Each structure stands twice: as C-alpha cells, then as structure tokens.
C-alpha cells in the first residue's frame, strides 16, 4: 500500500489520520483522505511531511501527547487560533522543528520539556492558552521569537540570555509570572514549585485552579509595600489630574472621536458624575460603578479562584471573597490600544446602562498589564446550561414553556433598552447576544451580560470572534448593528424553543444545527409543531403561544435586515403572548409526570415578568 502513497510515508499518513480522528472537523474529514499528500489541506510535503498549517479552522478536540512521534521531518507546525485542548505534545522526535505556533487554543498543563531541546527552534508561539506551571530555561540561540503571554503561568522567568532578550509583551497577562523582563517583583511564594504544573488531571473546558492563597498573600503584601512607597508621589499626580478633569468637564469634553458612531455623542450625566470619583480611585485599585468600594484588588488577588474558561474577551474566574461572597472576574485581552482615560470613559458608557434585565460590571480595573471587569456572580448559571445541561440525566429539571417565555421576554426588554436607552440617549448594539451571555440569578431573574464590548475589544478580534449567531450581513461586513442583534435574538429564541444547539455558537458539538436554516426548512415543509423541544411539546395548551413566538423568531432571522422588526416591536409581540392558565399547565405537567419542577418554573416566570419598571 505504501507504494501508492505520494508525498508522505505510511507512518506519517497514519499519524495524520490519527490526528484528524481526534479533531471534530468536517472540513478536515473531507480534505484529509487521499493517498496523495499534495491533496491534503495545510500540508507541506516533499516525500516526507515538513509542514502542517491548520489555522482558524474552529478545530476542537484533543491531540495525544505522542501524536507527532512519526512526523520526524516536521519543520513548521501551526494550529493557531482553533479550540484544541489537552496537554502540549511531546516534541522529542521533531528535531527539525523551527516554527511552532499553538497560540489561541485551549491547551492546558505545563510547557513540554521536550521544547527546550529543539536546537533548531526559531519561533515558539504559545500565547492565549491555559498553560500552567513555570517557564522552562529556554536558551537555544536559534530562538528569535517567543511568546507565552495570556496563559496561567507562574513563578520567575528563568534568567537565560535568550529569555531575557524578549520584552514584557512575550510574558504579559500571566497573573503569577514575575521577575525581569516583567516589572512584577518575585516574592518568596514565587519560588515555591507550582503544584498545578505537575498535575496531569487538566480537564477539557472548565478547569479548577485553586490559587495558593498564602503564597499570594505574601506576594500581595510585597507589592503593596512597593505601591505605598509610590503613593505619596502618585497623590500629587492625581491631584493634578483632578484639576485637569474639572477643567475638561467645564469645557464639556466629549468622548474621544474613535468611539464607534453608534455610541452616544455626549457622555450621559451619570457618567460625568462618576468621572471625578473614578479618577481618584483608579490609579491602582478597582473603580466601583456605584462609587462604593466593596473590596480591593488585593482582596481579589488573595482569594481562591475557579477558572470558568476562556471567553472571547479573556479568561473568566469565579472568585470567593473573604466574606464568602462570590464575584466573577474577567481578565480582558485583545483590547483596542486604549489609554487609561479612554478605557475608563468607555467602561463608564457601558456601565451607565441600567435595566433590571441587564448585568453590568460592578467594578473595573486598568493598569498597563492588566484590565479587569468584575461582575456580580449569578447563582443559577447561564441560559445555555439551562436549555442544554443535564439532558438525559436524573439531574435535569425540565425547562417549561412559562419559564422559557419569561426568558424571551426578559431578553427582549434588555435588548430594547440597549437599542433605545431612554436615560442617556445612548443606543448601542449588544454585539454578542448568545445563550451563555444570558444569566439567571438567585431570584431567577434573566440578566443579559457582556454588552457593548465592541467599544473596547480590538476590531480584528470582534470581527473574528464575537456574534455567535452570525447574520448574513455580519458575515459579509463583520460589523455589529441593531439589526444583527435582532438576528441574534431570533436565533436565541429558536434555541430556546427547539432545545437545539446552534452550530455557530458551538461548532464542535456534532448535535448542533444551523438553527436558522433548520427552522426555515421545518416551517416550509410544514412539520413545524414537531420542532419544539419535547419538554415543552408536552404542554399542548401552550402550542399556540409557541407557534407565535416561533413566527416572531423567524421574522427576526429574515435574511434582509430591513425586514427584521425593531426590538420595540419584538417586545410588544413577545409580551402579547399569553401564558396558559396555571391549572391547564399543571395538569399537563402532572400528565407528563414531571411536576417536581413546578416551583422553579413559576418563580422564574413570575420574577422576571414582574421586573418591568421601565415599561
Ligand atoms: N456574572 C456571572 N455569573 C455567573 N457565571 C458567569 C457570569 N459571567 C459569566 N459567567 C459564565 O462564565 C463563563 C465564561 O464567561 P465569559 O463571558 O468569559 O465567556 P462566554 O460567555 O463563554 O463568551 P463571551 O466572551 O463571548 O461572552 C460562561 O459560562 C458564562 O456564562
């Protein structure tokens, strides 16, 4: 059989087929088949495989540690910007490797020691993963490019001449990394071996990272001592800045001109009130949106934290404060190059939006190396998990029609408010509405989160990663608008009604469907009633309301943006859908023998539906 292969050896082909089997990628399944290496997408071969370049393909799945053993001639390897998870591979057999780019994936665990022995290695790009443990003492003179920024690495940067020759951008955004070339000073705790690096139990998705609280505390004390020394000097600078702010306010200073045109041309009055407050606090601490400092940056840093995974704007952590309260901390990355003032201004615009169905950050932080958003923790998770979580297990609490309708109404109200905001004349598109950005709090209130981020995230990243339900015009222009929000709302409602995962929001899930086309087909082929999630289909008396909501969702997902309704019209329509009487719903629930969830469902419905002071 080997005689029939062109461009690569049998062992290499088998290794690549095994690699493909670990990925869930329809594109590769199609393109990596033939016996001719030259037909394979992303390969470079000359009798043997010398290059594998698979970038921006939404590849998910894991790579086995020994996956590259038989690719002995490999010189270039890039899996840049995919969703690959698992530990880094063993590169001991890839002695020709010169360029390795695994950036923007979900790799976890330690940096593979085999990389230190690659004497031809010129470029190592590991940024934007979830790597833990320490940086190894790379010192091969061949190394010209090196980047491990945006990981969870810890400890001192080894003092080799090669590693010290790269500037701090190669190391930025690793919360526990220290020593030159970073300006963070190493405390005694940094010298303790990081236990997380040796653990082999890194999981795909949500990894629990318990931060060594004692060690960190010592580090914080050291950092604060340094801060305090600078404080007196800073005080003078702050006083000067306050004078400058007052002067700007008197002149009626406007938001910098680079703001997107959809943002308000004037700063809302509430924002101006906050501005002086913010300027006093923001030098080295959190800026609280309501002006009351509930805790300090140091409290966050010494607390234990659980990683919730990597979102489009950075890593999110659930942090447990000393008083037992939980908050969510998001470490932002891929921002526009904003000055402190610009960042503060934009956050003030975002946080000035107040509506019972919105979840703005409660605090934010800016420093050269770190930008953070702090949110209240919402105890009942997100809508994605409510719709899809625990299916087929005894843990699953059925998600009934009344509760789903309440979600559709709450989200619609929040979106209408963002589009119309009566208080500040600010009208912003959300830009990233999806089920994981709809949160459910302890009172079962529906809260829309992560809105307005286009004003701070770099244009390239927003275009690549935001908007999980992609409208046709967004795919063409890469710009979010109110009408692309309406499309997203329609898709979210389809997800809510069908219980299907959208392939746009989770390409790696093989049960996912292109919701828009799937629903359109169902309507066209007249099997409409069958498309509803079984959990609500049993509620026969509600079928009329479900059909009405489905029709609205279909209109929101019209290919032509002008034919889509405005959010205000959507709110009117979704609120006109009546719930079936409590009696008939209860009877149906009883007949489905699933009455256990009644209290949960009714509370979700009642609470979120009653919270409508703005209407
Ligand atoms: N305030 C919060 N309370 C509880 N869970 C939250 C909160 N904010 C976010 N989460 C959850 O944490 C996880 C990560 O959130 P994050 O916003 O970083 O990413 P995402 O929602 O997956 O994507 P994107 O960055 O596009 O919004 C998600 O499952 C999200 O639902």
TrEMBL record:
GO function terms (MF aspect): ATP binding; protein kinase activity
Disordered as annotated region, ranges: 565-615
Residues reported in the UniProt entry to bind ATP: 330
Location of the Protein kinase domain: 302-582
Protein keywords: ATP-binding, Kinase, Leucine-rich repeat, Membrane, Nucleotide-binding, Repeat, Signal, Transferase, Transmembrane, Transmembrane helix
Broad class of where this protein is predominantly found: membrane
GO (cellular component) term, any one: membrane
Transmembrane segments: 204-227
Keyword Membrane: yes
Biased composition (Basic and acidic residues): 565-576, 591-605
Biased segments, Polar residues type: 606-615
Subcellular location: Membrane
InterPro entries on file: Kinase-like_dom_sf (IPR011009), Leu-rich_rpt (IPR001611), LRR_dom_sf (IPR032675), PRK1-6/SRF4-like (IPR046959), Prot_kinase_dom (IPR000719), Protein_kinase_ATP_BS (IPR017441), Ser-Thr/Tyr_kinase_cat_dom (IPR001245)
A Pfam family annotated for this UniProt entry: LRR_1
Nucleotide-binding recorded as keyword: yes
Name of the protein in its database record: Protein kinase-like domain-containing protein
């Amino acid at each position: 059989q080997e005689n029939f292969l062109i461009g690569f050896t049998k062992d290499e082909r088998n290794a690549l087929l095994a690699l493909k089997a670990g990925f869930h990628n329809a594109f590769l399944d199609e393109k990596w088949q033939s016996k001719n290496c030259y037909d394979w997408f992303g390969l470079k071969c000359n009798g043997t495989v010398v290059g594998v370049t698979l970038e921006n393909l939404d590849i998910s799945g894991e790579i086995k540690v020994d996956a590259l053993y038989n690719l002995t001639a490999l010189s270039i390897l890039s899996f840049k910007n995919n969703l690959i998870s698992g530990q880094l591979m063993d590169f001991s057999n890839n002695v020709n490797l010169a360029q390795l780019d695994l950036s923007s994936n979900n790799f976890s665990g330690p940096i593979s020691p085999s990389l230190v022995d690659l004497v031809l290695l010129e470029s190592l790009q590991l940024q934007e993963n979830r790597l833990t443990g320490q940086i190894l003492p790379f010192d091969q003179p061949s190394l010209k490019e090196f980047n491990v920024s945006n990981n969870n690495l810890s400890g001192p940067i080894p003092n080799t001449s090669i590693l010290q020759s790269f500037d701090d951008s190669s190391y930025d955004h690793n919360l526990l990394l220290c020593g030159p070339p970073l300006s963070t000073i190493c405390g005694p705790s940094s010298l303790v071996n990081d236990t997380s690096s040796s653990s082999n139990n890194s999981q795909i998705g949500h990894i629990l990272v318990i931060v060594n609280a004692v060690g960190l505390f010592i580090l914080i004390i050291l950092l604060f001592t340094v801060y305090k020394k600078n404080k007196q000097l800073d005080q003078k600078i702050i006083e000067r800045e306050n004078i400058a702010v007052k002067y700007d306010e008197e002149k009626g200073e406007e938001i910098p001109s680079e703001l997107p045109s959809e943002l308000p041309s004037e700063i809302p009055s509430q924002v101006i009130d906050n501005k002086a407050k913010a300027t006093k606090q923001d030098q080295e601490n959190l800026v609280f949106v309501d002006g009351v400092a509930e805790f300090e940056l140091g409290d966050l840093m010494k607390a234990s934290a659980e990683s919730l995974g990597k979102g489009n704007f950075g890593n999110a952590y659930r942090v447990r404060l000393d008083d037992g309260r939980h908050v969510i901390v998001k470490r932002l990355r891929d921002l526009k190059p904003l000055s402190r003032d610009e960042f503060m201004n934009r956050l003030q615009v975002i946080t000035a939006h107040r509506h019972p169905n919105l979840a703005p950050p409660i605090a934010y932080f800016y420093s050269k190396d770190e930008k953070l958003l702090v949110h209240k923790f919402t105890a009942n998770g997100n809508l994605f998990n409510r719709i899809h979580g625990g299916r087929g297990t005894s843990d699953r609490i059925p998600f009934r029609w009344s509760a789903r309708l309440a979600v559709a109404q709450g989200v619609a109200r929040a979106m209408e408010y963002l589009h119309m905001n009566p208080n500040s004349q600010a009208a912003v598109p959300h830009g990233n509405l999806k089920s994981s950005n709809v949160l459910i709090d302890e009172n079962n209130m529906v809260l829309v989160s992560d809105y307005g981020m286009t004003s701070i995230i770099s244009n390239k990243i927003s275009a690549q990663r935001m908007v999980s339900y992609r409208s046709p015009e967004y795919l063409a222009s890469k710009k979010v608008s109110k009408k692309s929000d309406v499309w997203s709302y329609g898709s979210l409602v389809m997800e809510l009604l069908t219980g299907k995962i959208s392939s746009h929001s989770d390409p790696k899930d093989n049960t996912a469907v292109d919701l828009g086309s799937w629903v359109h087909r169902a309507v066209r082929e007249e099997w409409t009633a069958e498309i509803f999630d079984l959990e609500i289909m049993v509620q026969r008396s509600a079928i009329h309301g479900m059909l009405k909501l489905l029709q609205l969702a279909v209109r929101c997902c019209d290919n032509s943006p002008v034919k889509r309704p405005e959010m205000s019209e959507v709110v009117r329509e979704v609120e006109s859908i009546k719930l079936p009487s409590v009696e008939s719903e209860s009877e149906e629930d009883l007949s489905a023998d699933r009455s256990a969830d009644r209290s949960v469902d009714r509370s979700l419905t009642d609470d979120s539906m009653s919270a409508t002071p703005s209407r």
